[in-house]
Design goal:
By secondary structure, the chain is mostly helical. Among the domains are: about 5-240, no CATH class; about 405-475, Up-down Bundle (Methane Monooxygenase Hydroxylase, Chain G, domain 1). It contains 25 helices and 3 strands. It has a 3-stranded mixed β-sheet with strand order 1-3-2, with helices on both faces. A hairpin with a 3-residue loop joins β2 and β3 (about 95-100). The two termini are about 20 Å apart. The relative contact order is 0.09. Bound molecules: zinc ion.
Amino acid sequence: MSALARCRWLVSVAVFVQLVVLPAAAPATVGMEKQLGEEFVSQARKGLPLIYDYEINEMVSDIGGRIVRALGMQPFDYEFFVVRDDSINAFAVPGGKIFVHAGLISRVKSEDALAGVLAHEVAHAHAHHAVRQQQKGAAAGYASLAGIFLALINPVLGQAALMASQAKTLEYQRDFEREADFLALEYTRRSGFDPQSMLELLRVIYDEQKINPTSVPPYFLSHPLTAERMANIEGVLGRLEWERESVPVASKRLLRAAAVARGTSQRRAKAVGDYEAAVSSADTGEERLSAVEMAGVLMVHGEDYSTALAYLREAVAGGRNLDRELGRALLRLGEYDEALPLLKRAVEKRPGDWNALADLGEAHYRLSDAEQAVAAFEKSWELSPWRPRVAESFARALDLAGKRERGYYFLAVVAETTGRLDRALLYYRKALPGLEEGGEEWKQASSRLEQLEDAAEQPHRQPRTPVARLRGLYDRG
Ligand SMILES: [Zn+2]
């Protein structure tokens, strides 16, 4: 990260801290927790490598949503995010914003085990544990809680060791941890998942931890895994009198999500080796077909399109439906005519698939069909408006359709979301004259432009103290 980018990051942190510092004297309310959650999410979009993949995001939100629905009426809008990171980790930000690392998704053996971990995080948020813990602490307050959560996503110090030391500062008190486990098992059961699966996951990691105590995953620094905790969970499961009909296995969508997670991970080379080994050791027939399919999914997400193509074609010849993956591989390899019908089919099958929609838009654009390209990008953007690469492609398609100014609007939104404020200012200026006056985008652009211009004219208005406080947090490691 450049010095300039870092400086911008600190300025945006200052804006955030200013928002949450003001009411520090009063006890935190649900409204303040919501605000903290929202602000954290907007910082996370700038500072965290979030995964934007329809399949993985949909699966996590679906499982999380089932747990939340089982709770009944909720004060928070729960949202689930996936972080591109290989470590086993998950954390809850006050206000119901739950983050799970890709490493956990590729580690769990079933959706039920993932449901257990998500339910534990939902329980921490639902029971206001982070905020209650801060209020009990002597010097700690709401503002320092905000600082701790921000330190957790600080991109400058993104190394695992530092992340771990920061996770430790979020360690929940033993009684909160016990309560979260108790609630998680109850939520898991109530939402139709198998609560035993969470215990099994924890037991495997607990045993690993005993063999190699230095390799504690970050998750267990904030949620320490002790003999007492294991015994408590076993006790609760006993009291629930949970009758297990069968041991849950990995669903197809979990296997695909794991392939996406590992294909985009920092340790992709290792993943490629594992998936290739699975293909060579598989027997013929169904087993080989599944291994080949997953290897294809992994390669597409690892952006190795020519290797992906061979696997995907073999899986398709065996009867697997891989329209979206094959469509993407062909698109990226420049085979637009062949990609187009596959992507059309993928979108017909799943109209909400914003990845396939963006790929379809790109295919239309490459084939010079500006109108169809804009229509597909428009839908994709509506469903998931946080992807810089899609905004750039969308802008190109709008340019081709003779609507360059509207393209600048989307580029401005993304620049602002990712913290490049001077660029956002420039793009909004270019966009405004071409937008339909009085329309939603025109209104947005006008109001953002005004605010960004104000901020640009008074760059020294930010109070220094909160920045200094956060710098202290950053430099501690
Ligand atoms: Zn916990």
